[in-house]
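Sample entry (362 residues):
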Amino acid sequence: MFIFTKGRSKSLPLQVLKQIITVSNSNKNLRTIQMATGKPFREIELPQQKPQDEGVLFPAVLSPNSTALELFAFEDAIRTHKPWLESLLLKSGAILFRGFPVISPYDFNRVVEAFGFPELPYVGGAAPRTQVVDRVYTANESPLDKEIPFHHEMAYLPNPPTKLFFFCEEEPEAGGETPIVLSHVIYEKMKEKHPYFVEKMEEHGLRYTKITGDDDNPSSYTGSSWKSAYKTDDKTIAEERAAKQGIKLEWMGNTVKIISKPLPAIRFDEESRRKTWFNSLVVSYYGPATEKIGNPNTSAEVGNGDPVDDDAVKDLLKIMKEECVVIPWKKGDFLLVNNLTVLHSRRPLIKPPRRILASLCK
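Predicted structure, serialized as tokens:
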């Protein structure tokens, strides 16, 4: 019907357009022409974006070309232009959609479904979450005035999600942003600053440990109980589900130590052809560098048993802060993140409200 590439299109012949218009009502005419001209999205620029190689902006930001775009037409546009959107995601690492007709969790779920990415069940997750509707869950439920450090989602498991969606249902008045940063940039900066530590991580990976009990700990961003994490009250079933993920459970009454096998801390991303800082070091490590933001019930060590270099973690936190992009949320925003190449975090909420929802994809 048409070809859409970087904002340019080939329109259908006028005769064909007239035939489409003839069989459509007036409202449908507008939507049909909009789709037929191949311009449902336009790239816009925000002052917070950062340029990458070849002038690519991080993140990409898309807005609708028409205020008359309705939700079902937006769903159709996503399906039609999915190859282009995936190409943009690969180049930029994340796409912020702003100004589209996405108002409720139900709308957000429809948008997630329109992309057609398989859902990743949240089994073994460290954060407490509540299902809102179908594929949509709350984001981390820890106190909103607390910071959550940068991480790749579920990098403490062997099969983490490849893509994440975030949706702003309630816009914060101040604070509460979701900063993002390119993982390959962090790797390159850390390799320059701490080459020996990075070499050890590349060779041995990281091992993660968490101690948790029967009940969720709402004060912690890694506060899910073993029952919530493994979706069962049965210890045997929990052990079976953990074992499938290469996780060992050591019981101490109803408290359990969750121990991962050594997992890669630096990964080579096949699509971007770059090494990435793919780990959960900052959210798992507890030491002087993270005592203000860390959780004393979690720990991380180098896969060979060596301790993590605290000075390296201090520099890591500084680099992440310097290199990240922070765009304030607006109601109706949704963010698509390549979890294999981009880390995310949460800034403390200064002035409520804030309600951000999430969906994870394989």
